Please model this.
Amino acid sequence: MANFQKCTIVSPSNETEVQWVLFQVIKCKAAIVWEAGKPFSLEEVEVSPPKEHEIRVKIIATGVCRTDDHATSPSFKEGLFPVILGHEGAGIVESIGPGVTRFKPGDKVIPLYLPQCGQCKFCLSPKTNLCERISKAKTPISDQDLMLDGTSRFMCKGKQIYHFMGTSTFSEYTVVVESSLAKIDPAAPLDKVCLTGCGFSTGYGAAINTAKVEPGSTCAVFGLGGVGLSAIMGCKAAGASRIFGIDINKSKFALAKELGATDCLSPEDFKNPIQEVIAEMTDGGVDFAIECIGNIKVMKAALCCTTVGWGTCVIVGVAVGEEGFVVSPLDLIMGRKINATFFGGWKGVDSVPNLVLDYMAGKFSLDALVSYTLPFDKINEAFDLMRQGKSNRTVLVY
Ligand code: PAD
Ligand code: ZN
Ligand code: ZN
Model:
C-alpha cells in the first residue's frame, strides 16, 4: 500500500473525483528543445509523481514569452539541454506530494518562476521580491534546471530532461515546488490569466512597483511586445499624463494607443537618436523610461532619454550573451537613476492571486494582449509569430 493514497484527482477532461490512487508516472505531451537553436519537438514524456513539498499540475494554457526564445539561443551559455521550457502557464493541481498544505487537487494555480518561500531574509523584507531559493543563480533564467533534490521529474526516450525556471509549462503535466505556485480564484479563465505568470505582471509591475510612476509624469516605454504593452498599462494606471511607446515595428502602435500610449515613435523615422528626439519633445527628458526589449543599445538610450535631476530608467529586457553597457558617473551625479525589475517586483504567492482578481474585476485587460490562441501542437508557429513581430502574446492551449 506504500504507493497508494486517498486523494482527489483531476481527469484529463477536468472532472474531479476521490479515489485511492497509485502515485504513478503520467505519460503526456510536451515540447522538448533537444539542443540550443533547434525547434521544439513534440514528444511523449514521463512525468514522475511529486516528491515532498512538490505539486504536479495539469497545465491548461501557457503563454509564449521572449525569455523562452532567449533560452533556446546558442548565445545563452548557461542553457542546459534537453529541456522543457515555458514559464507563463496556468493549470489545475493534479496531485500533491507529502507535506504540501496550501494546495489540494482541483485548485487553479499559476506556476511562479520567482518563488516565494516566505521564510528567507528576502521574502521577509518588503524591499525585494527575490527569494533565497533563486538568489544565488548566475542569471535569473539559469536557475532551477532540476528540482531541489538535484533530479528531474521528466524523462523522454530514456533520457532525463531538464526543467526550466522551476515551471516548465510546455508540458501537459509539470511538477513544481510548493513555494513556486500561486493559488488563484476558481472562476479565473486560465487561457487569459496565464499572462499574470510573466508578461503582464512584469511590465505592469515594472511601471507601478519598480519605476513607481507618479501621477502627471511623463514616461517612455521601449519595446511594445506583451511586456512593453503591459508597462504602458501600468504607466496609465499610475496616472502618467504623457506616455511614449517606442518600437521599430509600427504595427504595434494602434494597440499601444488603445492601452494608454499618447505618442508612438519609431526610431527609424528620425535622423537624430531617439533619446534626443524624446528629450526635445519633453523639455529635457521624461521622468521615467522602461526598456522592454533586451537590447543593450536601447537600454542606454532609455537611460539617456530621462531628465537630469530625477529621471529613472528601469530595465526589464533580458540581454543574453552581451557584455553590458557603460554608465557615466556623470549621468548618476546629475540625478539620473537606473534600476531593473525581476517579475515586476511582485512577490508571486501573495500578489498573483490579487492580480487575477483585479483582472476579473475589469481593472485592466489581458485579452488585448492575446494576439492568438492556438492548440499546443502549434508551438513552433507561436514562436515564429513572435519572431516575425506578428504577435504580442500567443496562448497555447492543451
Ligand atoms: P517581444 O519580442 O514580444 O517584444 C519586444 C518588442 O521590441 C517588439 O515589439 C520589437 O519590435 C521591439 N524591438 C526590437 N528591437 C527594437 C529596437 N531596436 N528598438 C525599438 N523596438 C525594438 O518580447 P516580450 O515583450 O515578450 O519581452 C520583452 C523583453 O523582456 C525580453 O527581453 C524578455 O526576455 C524580457 C522579460 N523580462 C522579464 C523580467 O522579469 N525582467 C520578464 C519577462 C520578459
Ligand atoms: Zn517571460
Ligand atoms: Zn524566500
Summary: The chain has two domains: 25-35+73-199+345-397, 203-341. The pocket of zinc ion (ligand 2) is lined by residues 65, 67, 87-88, 198-199 (CB under 6 Å). DSSP finds eleven helices and 19 strands in the chain.
